[in-house]
């Protein structure tokens, strides 16, 4: 006979018991969650190879990829996680990367160098502007760019969503450590580059595009990677078949190679926010500039007809009231970059001849200081930095002066004569244009959103240019 369980005479009387059971279950679940999180230990901090060097560690994205899409133009950038031998381990060799001085202090703070507050720069800058300045080295660019891209707002960690792929290989450091070594061979200078290409060519996204949507930043001039087949200076990274389709962002490009894109040399100015940039712009715009022009550089006595020696003599002939000069022999300007900054901040124009190659960091030191550059070779800027400096349709005249060096050599004109003939109203407009361009010429110290406020730094310009280039090439693939 089936048992019958009579209904409780008052169904509402069951509710308190039900509530109690639910509360017990809820608190039990909370306890389990707490115990689970306590069981998870944080990952150990990475060991640093040198106390002076901050090794780049992948930074988690601050925003989801989806939140970035609307502000990232043509697409997102994926950053390869290379084996440490191609970047992190090179930083650990900072004492041996350059023959004349240790790069360890200059590779500190993720490549920015030592803060200006503890350097000679503190003697020439207002205290409130010091936090934006560092003792940066021009060869630290690879580390600086990598750091910024790791947390860039347009970074994606999903390669399937990427429009462009960044290869964080510190080729300049890898090749540079062998350039002056007495016993280094061509094989030594190429070894890291060959190994990197072997790794890269095995990646599926490289195989898909053959490198057309890939890019790399190089902290040395292009000629340091273009050794002749007959031997001689430098490595041969950029002449290797496996890198032919990769875009190279390089501080000096080969004007005849469309895969080279010129990017600014690092200066000591690394603002964290747009407000820092605007404060600096106001400072250099209002600063008194008693001298007409200035020149910083070392003469090359071993070169017949050395042009830099000619410019030093031009400066001396103009007199100290019109021109200030700084002899940078024996690395004086590297050891005390405050001298260069102070010199350029006191002049309306600064002379920018070619250096050991056609470009110089001094061009960007000059412009960041708010002075108008005076050029003597078109390859020093006009054929180099098209993504960063307006050079089409004669727009270079808005922010620079070009003087025919042959006319100067022949004595048909003088630097002082050319510059003094420019109307003061035009000089003000040129200086205003230079000051306006400063954000695009510097590398933000902020690891997240960059300068913010709609202001773009040099890395933002790089990303925009690279994803645009990749998109254009992708459209051309679809038509073939």
Automatic annotation (TrEMBL):
It is a single-pass type II membrane protein. InterPro entries: Exostosin (IPR004263), Exostosin_GT47 (IPR040911). It is found in: Golgi apparatus membrane. It holds the Pfam family Exostosin_GT47. One of its GO terms (cellular component) is Golgi membrane. It comes from the Eukaryota. PANTHER family: EXOSTOSIN HEPARAN SULFATE GLYCOSYLTRANSFERASE -RELATED (PTHR11062), OS04G0574100 PROTEIN (PTHR11062:SF114). This is Exostosin GT47 domain-containing protein. It comes from Eragrostis curvula (weeping love grass).
């Amino acid at each position: 006979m089936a048992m019958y369980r009579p209904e409780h005479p008052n169904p509402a009387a069951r509710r308190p018991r039900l509530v109690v059971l639910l509360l017990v279950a809820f608190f039990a679940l909370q306890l389990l969650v707490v115990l689970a999180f306590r069981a998870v230990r944080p990952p150990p901090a990475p060991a640093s190879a040198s106390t002076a060097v901050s090794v780049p560690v992948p930074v988690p994205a601050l925003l989801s990829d989806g939140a970035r899409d609307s502000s990232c133009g043509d697409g997102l950038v994926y950053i390869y996680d290379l084996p440490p031998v191609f970047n992190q381990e090179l930083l650990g060799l900072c004492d041996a990367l350059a023959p004349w001085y240790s790069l360890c202090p200059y590779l500190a703070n993720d490549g920015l160098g030592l803060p200006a507050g503890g350097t000679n720069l503190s003697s020439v800058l207002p205290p409130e502007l010091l936090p934006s300045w560092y003792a940066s080295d021009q060869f630290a660019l690879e580390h600086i760019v990598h750091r910024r891209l790791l947390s860039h707002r347009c970074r994606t960690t999903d390669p399937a969503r990427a429009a462009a792929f960044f290869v964080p290989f510190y080729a300049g450091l890898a090749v540079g450590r062998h350039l002056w070594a007495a016993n280094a061979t061509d094989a030594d200078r190429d070894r890291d580059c060959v190994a990197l290409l072997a790794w890269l060519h095995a990646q599926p996204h490289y195989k898909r595009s053959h490198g057309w949507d890939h890019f790399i930043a190089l902290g040395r001039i292009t000629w340091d990677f273009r050794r002749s087949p007959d031997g001689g200076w430098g490595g041969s990274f950029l002449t290797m078949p496996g890198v032919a389709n990769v875009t190279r962002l390089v501080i000096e490009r080969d004007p005849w190679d469309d895969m080279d894109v010129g990017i600014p040399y690092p200066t000591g100015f690394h603002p964290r926010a747009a407000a820092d940039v605007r404060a600096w712009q106001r400072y250099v715009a209002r600063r008194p500039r008693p001298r007409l022009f200035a020149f910083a550089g070392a003469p090359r006595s071993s070169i017949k007809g050395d042009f830099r020696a000619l410019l030093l003599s031009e400066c001396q002939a103009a007199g100290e009231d019109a021109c200030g000069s700084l002899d940078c022999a024996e690395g004086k300007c590297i050891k005390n970059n405050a001298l260069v900054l102070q010199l350029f901040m006191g002049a309306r124009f600064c002379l920018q001849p070619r250096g050991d190659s056609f470009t110089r960091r001094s061009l960007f030191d000059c412009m960041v200081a708010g002075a108008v550059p005076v050029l003597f070779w078109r390859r020093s800027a006009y054929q180099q930095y098209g993504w960063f400096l307006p050079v089409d349709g004669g727009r270079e005249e808005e922010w620079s002066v070009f003087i025919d060096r042959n006319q100067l050599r022949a004595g048909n004109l003088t630097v002082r004569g050319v510059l003094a003939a420019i109307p003061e109203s035009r000089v003000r407009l040129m200086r205003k244009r230079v000051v306006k361009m400063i954000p695009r010429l510097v590398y933000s110290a902020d690891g997240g959103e960059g300068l913010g406020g709609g202001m773009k730094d040099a890395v933002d310009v790089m990303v925009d240019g690279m994803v645009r280039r990749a998109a254009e090439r992708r459209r051309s693939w679809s038509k073939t």
